[in-house]
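Notebook B, p. 112. Complex prediction, attempt 2.
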Amino acid sequence: MLGIDTECIVGVMSVKHALLGLLESQSRHGYELKHSYDEYFTQDKPLNYGQVYSTLARLLRGGLVEESGVEAGAGPDRKRYAITEAGVTDLANWLTKPEEPAVYLQNTMYVKVVLALLSGREATAVLDAQRTTHLRAMRELTQRKNEGDLTDALICDHALFHLDADLRWLELTASRLDELAERVRAS
Amino acid sequence: MNADMAIGIRLAVGRGMGSRLAVVRFVLVVLDIGLCVAVLLFAAAAIDTIGSSSDREAARAPVLDKRAGVTPLSLVNISSAYRGSSISGRQVRGGPLSPVPPGVPAIPGPGEVFVSPELARLLDSDPALRARFGGTRAGLIEPSGLVDAGELYFYEGVDRLPDDRDITTAYAFGDERRGGTTPAEMILVSGVAVVLLAPLLVFIACVGRLGGVERDQRLATLRLLGATAPQVRRIAAAESLAGAVAGLAVGVAMFFAVHRRVDGLQVGNFRFSAADFVPPWWRFALVLLIVLVLVVGAVLLGMRSTVVEPLSVTRDSGAPMRRLRWRLLPAASGVAFLLPIALDLVHENKDVTMLVSCAIASALVAIPVLLPWLVERAVAPLTGGLPSWQLAVRRLQVDSGTPSRVVGGIAVVLAAAVGGQTIITSVAGLHAGTPDLSELQAHRLSGYTDGLYLLSAFTLLAAGASLLVLVVQQLGERRRAVAALSAIGVPWQVIGRSLLWQNLIPIGFGVLVANLAGAGLAVATLHVLGAPAVFDWRFAGAVSIGAVLTVCFATVLGIPVLRASARLDALRSE
Amino acid sequence: MTGALLAAVELHKSFGSTRALAGVSFSIAAGEVVAVMGPSGSGKSTLLHCLSGILAPDEGTVTYDGHELGRLPDAQRSLLRRTDFGFVFQFGQLVPELTCLENVALPLRLAGAKRKIAELAAVEWLERLGVADTARKRPPDTSGGQSQRVAVARALVTGPKVLFADEPTGALDSLSGERVLKAMTDVARASGTAIVLVTHESRVAAYADREVVVRDGRIRVSEWQ
């Protein structure tokens, strides 16, 4: 299996907000939260229970979530969790605040190309190898997208567009290699 | 095979059922071909009328050479004016052994009169006129004794012929020298026929191969889908045939509709009669066949130059510059036809006539063939100017073919009219100096002039219609370009003016070439006939202005289509 | 290459002084989907035209199913296009005078099928591509995505062995493009039709089994599964 990380669509920072969001409509048990999270947001590796409970503990400490009751019965933990006023405010703030556009001004691919040129290696080989790997990944994502449902499609497309951007950069760099080589050698 | 034809016809019908613009285009094509066909049918009939009236004239011309055993018929030609037309006839006196003129059963006895049917009608309706013709009506003159059905003619039997008139003694009737068609007239008649037919054929060919770009694209698609080259040719032929057949039907309908109305119509000295204007069925069929062959032929020929390859779907390559070499052929052959005469190698009247006719035909063909080349070279160095001028010039530089082809047709009409008029004026002048010019010959010559005016007018009308079709067609083809222009804020008036320039520049050259060619033709022909050329510049100017106005008018009529094209939704899809 | 349905060896092609192909070799197996990538002007469309026998290469050979295309007479090549090859271009390949149904039926009719039978097959293909509702419309009255799917239906109606697609989604927005691509590759894979997919977009190329990259008239990268 050619691996690319797609399981972690929701970054570490936002697991907290994801759980808040899931709690807003109704109070839930810890295991319910984990399953809903997995259903909506993950692809390969499910969220582990440890992460669920550590996040909930943090939310409880911050007063964003409260325990709304414990049910009797078997099982490790039968606590229900509900969102607080403060939790709703925090979630609303997070949702309406735009994400910083991620700008990658330093990237490994660029460094590799420049180093290849400096050391007199074939820079196109670097680019071509990268392109092949990228395209392979895209092919796999496309296949997964076409076999899955709408959730899969949207998640895969997000990744595809990013890979596509990388590939465009590779393409453009490939056609400007001579120019770049001159610049690198001159300095 | 049948499937190919079906696809072709389906494509033609599909074009008709498409957008409103496409419908307009299809209807215009059909009407235009129809108009041309109708004019051709009339021409086919008219040639017959000119010929037969000449023959009938010859048949009643007296033979003056003495013949043994014949009592000559003494006759006096009488002619008098009656309400703008002229009544003519003969007072005759003869015996039982005298020759009988054609169209009457016997020589009228003293006091008896034979009249033409038209004169009889006049006499019945006008007592004053009846008073002038005292004799008893012995019968009507049959058509074989009349030049045309509308002629006012009589034979009056008298005891004594008037002393103050020249008395002709006829030993027989039917003198080819006096009344028959002279070689000059033969050249004239055949020339006029060629002149008349050539431009109409050019228009039909132009309109028939309409939609060049679109059609090429369509056929390229068929090639891509695996149609073989012969298959594509069959489909294209069937497609053009559909338009041509519809055009023919309209043309035949127009012919009969007009035919019924022209009966008795008088133009100058020429009087139409429905009976005279029915061409024999074989000639009728020939006209239809020629039109069909021409349309299909033009399409197939056009396809040969733009090779229909599958690739033209995705790529269109610029047309190569026109080559001059083969375009000089018709002009060169025109000169070649005149050479034997100039070198005095040919003496027979018949041969001279044939050679001159061929030369005229070649020269006329040379005009539309040379004009696109000329326009292309002439516009190549042009630049700058107003936006409309610039658009037009650039467009002509890219493709001058379509406008200059029709304009070439108009130029042919012009050249023919100018040339024909010059010849007629000069020949008439020549005859005027000849004392024994019969009245009938004078009548005939002026009839030719009237005919020439009439036919040039008709042909110019057909030319205008064809040009309109081409303007509309071109707008359809360039719909996206026009829409794009209007999208960037170019007012439609500017686009309209550029369209006008696109047609006016070629017609400018056309008028120039046509006048030169017409005058040249006339000089050459008259030189052969041994007559000095008399130029009628007023006529040339009038016809030239007429041609330019025709072009302007056709372009202006295309403006509504332009405005429709300039609407931005044309940018969408396709 | 063994097992190749269509193979080109050392193709050279120039247009005037412009060199479009400078020694390209290529092969595709039956049922395979291969993307031909490269920037515009790299020669990828020319490669497609040479592979399909529309253009004759200046040098080199193209072999389809054991036949060298350059040696076949025009009628034979026409026959191939009619029966074994299908084409989809960026736009403009539908005949605007005909309805979508008639467009799809056209290749069958050119091959001599009766109208009824050809149109029945056409309806089926329009349905398979999800554009059955366009049957009575003329191409200018349909959306870009619809007409491309009609074009795909027309290309596949004869059950070709190879489908040549040149930027089939070039004129479409992302979503319509994706739908056309999915429909095209799904249907082709189901019927075992190989696709030569020319594109400059990696997202389009990702629908293929593998890709070759043409740059300056040469194949730069050729990746095998």
